[in-house]
Amino acid sequence: MNRLRSAALAVVAAALVLAIAPSATSQPRLSNDDAAIRSALQIDFPRLGGVASVRVIDADGIHVFGVSMDKPMVPASTMKVITATNALTTLGADHRFVTKVVEGRQRNEIVLVGGGDPLLDRTTLRRLATRTKQQLAATGRSGRTMTVRLDDMLYPTPSDAPGWLSGDSPTYAAPVRALGLLYDYSWDTATNAAAAFVDALNTAGITANFGGRRAASANAAAVATVSAHTVGGAIKLMLIYSENNIAEQLFRHVALATGNEPTWQGARQAARDTLRSLQIPIRNLQLLDGSGLSMENRLTARSLTMTLRLEVDGQHPELAQIVDRRWLPTSGETGTLSGRFWAGGSDCAVGRVFAKTGSLAGVQTLAGLTRGADGSWKIFAVLTNDSYGDSRPVIDEMAAEINGCLAA
């Protein structure tokens, strides 16, 4: 689809050519398709508004387009691309989260121990209650009134991440605890989950009451366990629906997996170390949380595209699952992109772009992949800060340009 572009934009675009064109000696000659992408984005870029950073590369890492691609930017929820990459690298997609019940300090006491399962739900707790009932019956306690204690001490006392605004928690991210039900955005998710477990025990025929928090003994005997959910399942839900609670749980699991404390500082260090192990430049990056909610987070278009490229470079099968299993939102079809790419000239790209969205006050971002007109993967990141108009239609058109379905 042809679009009218003002003469003023054309003048600005022409000025951009000198700013973004790589030297002839440093880059291979672009294919005709990649040259067309560059020409289109040179015109689109000035329409973004605010402060913007863009980079496009191909699956071989060849530079196609870039403006301010090393400028640290507030990434919003495109930070979840980093969180997913780190979780898959350190834990693997098949790693399972364990929630368990152990013996308490008295014969009529058991302890529910949270293991940081970000997908824990009532169905899983009912299964745990059934297994607990079976063990209590085997030890002659099915007729006793049981007191359920709560141990959510895998993580320290919750606090806000640096850069979270007043009111962000629990509205947009619950205080991070080692026990909580999926989609529970409340102050004390652990107590809510424990109450749900007590209800499940009573429904199963075990008279039970909640006795508050108490740490389990280090050598406490196991009563029952469940491990229904995987890292892969958590990442899929986190990326498609931009689920903040899941992201913050994974942020801490990466810390634990790398021998760091599951604190904000420990998780930040683990995230940086994992990116460094993948040869992603971490200079000027600020990885202050796992969800991207912090206004003090900083990523670059270069760091995002380099990270996304790992999914299609053929060298990282654990990361390739993000693309192969469609764990990113699909343009116009799934998750946070289901309502986009239906307006203007971007509708030709419905079903063709796989990308993570990001949105905060004054921040609009999109980072992902699409197959270009030549059939090869194009990896892109578009980040706008200090832009208080809606830049999403322009970003979507740029993604359509990268796909090649939108004629210049």
Automatic annotation (TrEMBL):
Keywords: Hydrolase. The keyword Ribosomal protein does not apply. SUPFAM superfamilies: beta-lactamase/transpeptidase-like (SSF56601). Belongs to the peptidase S13 family. GO terms for biological process: peptidoglycan metabolic process; proteolysis. One of its GO terms (molecular function) is serine-type carboxypeptidase activity. Pfam families: Peptidase_S13 (PF02113). Signal peptide: none annotated. The keyword Repeat does not apply. This is Unannotated protein.
